[in-house]
Write a structure and sequence with these properties.
The complex is a heterodimer.
Chain A (H helix, E strand, L loop, with lengths): L25 E2 L1 H13 L7 E9 L3 E9 L7 E6 L2 E6 H7 L3 E5 L6 E5 L5 E2 L5 E3 L1
Parallel strand pairs in A: 1-6, 2-5
Antiparallel strand pairs in A: 2-3, 3-9, 4-5, 6-7, 8-9
Chain B lengths: L5 H6 L3 E5 L2 E6 L3 H10 L2 E4 L4 E6 L3 H8 L12 E7 L5 E9 L4 E5 L4 H10 L7 E4 L4 E7 L3 H8 L12 E6 L2 E7 L7 E7 H13 L3 E3 L1 H11 L33 H9 L5 E8 L10 E4 L2 E11 L6 E8 L8 E4 L7 E5 L10
Parallel strand pairs in B: 3-13
Antiparallel strand pairs in B: 1-2, 3-9, 4-7, 4-8, 5-6, 6-7, 9-12, 10-11, 11-12, 14-17, 14-19, 15-16, 15-18, 16-17, 18-19
Helix pairs in contact in B: 2-7
Classes of the chains: A alpha+beta, B alpha+beta.
Chain lengths: 132, 358
């Protein structure tokens, strides 16, 4: 399951707090708008961050986790800024998520947040679960 | 590994031998009496080879619920559930019994599978607060089995508030030793698995024997297993099979949502794509049989014999195997490869965990 995972070198990682690099996590403008909408709904007006993570489960082994948090990163977090959204990613989750683009699909058949994850070799039908 | 009650069993007349990675009591010299005790009175058996993992932390049940087929969250203290860990292809990593002992969650795995199960949980632990510790070698598991075993249990562990029901766990003390008593029946035979620390294992064994329980070795225990249609890891359970083939449908919650392998298992069920089934078999002695033999129907290979056991009291030869669904029909006769005599009869399709949940 983990056989195809590339070993990330130091240069792949975020070395400063808000630097953006090709292997960071990106947020489309549509997703950024949706995230701000959810943040306001949850009572965060200005100061918030999006936590992107993974947890075990789902049909294919790993599930995406999205949470709105107050703007207080943990020591183990990598921090990315994109389209005005501050993103926290735990280091352990980062190797599964590096290079992922987060989009938002709305409308009647919309799926909500959609992950384009280059590390995923398989995904389940609904796209919420993946394997690397 | 040598069982912590091997010396006590040998003092009761046990012959010992290897079984998997274990050195344990294979028999006590009177297989027919051992067999009858489990069916008519109380047997005591050393089940210490079952894998045991102590899991602690607030997220244990939530993680297990996301990784396995059955609903195990919530699981109130004192209760248990059977669930199957499957990979993303819906194949079996192990059948695991999960019990909430209060201070921690106990996972009972197949023999020798505790490391693999603990590693699988660790692989999917990211943000969860969970610690796992294999406790197979620091504890013993001594099983009272048989229709009279509730009475024997009451003598071995006086002061039990009530006899535990299937899939319940209760705590008791014996001469100061803390015991956890897990009820996990073998088909219709009541079974109480008494977990004690290694230091207290012998006193539990001796107390059971003193209360009249008949020691049963692994040879007869395997007969009881095959007779009850219980799949064993490495024979009927493993990554070659999915839980629907193995008759574990009662351990699948089709409504609880995603877990690893759920999509494949739901599809197999919805589109009726299960290809083969675990079957219980009766064999006659006209043709010599051995585990691993191919099973044929009308000259075509339709399955395999995976377990074989001779009932000591009657001499009947029983087996477990897998057969393609067209052949997995009670009463259907099969032949062993290399023979023309239909010496194998399909008895039934055992469902260890019962029918599909409603």
């Amino acid at each position: 399951m983990f056989g195809t995972l590339r070993v990330l070198g130091e240069s792949d990682y975020m070395t400063t707090a808000t630097e953006k690099k090709p292997l960071s996590i990106q947020v489309t403008p549509k997703a950024a708008k949706a995230i701000r909408r959810f943040a306001v709904r949850e009572g965060h007006e200005d100061s918030f961050a999006l936590r992107v993570g993974v947890k075990g489960g789902g049909c294919s082994g790993l599930l995406y986790v999205l949470e709105i948090e107050s703007d207080q990163p943990a020591d183990t977090d990598r921090i990315v800024d994109d389209n005005g959204i501050r993103i926290f990613i735990d280091k352990k989750a980062y190797i599964f998520l590096a290079g992922t683009e987060l989009d938002f699909s709305d409308g009647l058949n919309g799926k909500g947040f959609v992950f384009q994850n280059p590390n995923a070799t398989k995904a389940c039908g609904c796209g919420n679960s993946f394997a690397v | 590994m040598s069982s912590p009650v091997l010396a006590a069993a040998q003092a009761s007349g046990a012959q010992s031998g290897p079984w998997g990675d274990w050195e344990l009591a294979t028999g006590f010299g009177y297989p027919a009496a051992e067999y009858r005790a489990a069916h008519q009175a109380t047997a005591v058996h050393d089940t210490s080879y079952l894998g045991r993992i102590k899991a602690t932390g607030p997220d244990v049940l939530d993680l297990l619920n996301r990784l396995s087929t059955n609903r195990v969250d919530p699981l109130p203290p004192g209760s248990g559930a059977a669930t199957v860990l499957t990979n993303e292809k819906g194949r079996i990593l192990d059948l695991v019994y999960v019990f909430n002992l209060g201070p921690y969650i106990l996972l009972l795995t197949s023999p020798g599978r505790e490391e693999a199960v603990a590693q699988w949980l660790d692989r999917f632990t990211f943000i969860e607060d969970i610690a796992t510790e294999p406790i197979t070698s620091s504890t013993a598991l001594i099983t009272l089995a048989g229709p009279k075993s509730p009475e024997t249990l009451a003598m071995v562990a006086p002061g039990l508030p009530a006899t535990p029901e299937p899939l319940q766990v209760v705590h008791a003390t014996l001469d100061g030793a803390q015991l956890s008593i897990i009820r996990l029946d073998l088909a219709g035979i009541p079974c109480f698995h008494i977990m004690a620390s290694v230091e207290h294992a012998e006193s539990v064994w001796n107390a059971a024997a003193a209360c009249g329980a008949v020691p049963v070795g692994e040879d007869v225990w395997q007969v009881l297993r095959v007779e009850a249609g219980v799949p064993a890891y490495g024979k009927e359970l493993g990554e070659a099979f999915n839980p629907l083939e193995t008759g574990l449908i009662g351990g699948i919650d089709f409504a609880k949502g995603c877990y690893i392998g759920q999509e494949v298992i739901a599809r197999l069920d919805t589109y009726d794509k299960v290809q083969r089934a675990l079957v219980r078999l009766s064999l006659d002695d006209a043709v010599p049989a051995q585990e691993g033999a191919k099973l044929l129907s009308e000259g075509k290979e339709v399955g395999v014999l995976t377990s074989l056991a001779r009932v000591p009291a009657t001499g009947a030869l029983l087996g477990l195997g897998y057969a393609r669904r067209a052949a997995a029909v009670p009463g259907h006769r099969l032949t062993l490869a290399g023979s023309n005599v239909p010496s194998v009869e399909v008895l039934d399709l055992p469902l260890l965990l019962g029918e599909e949940q409603s």
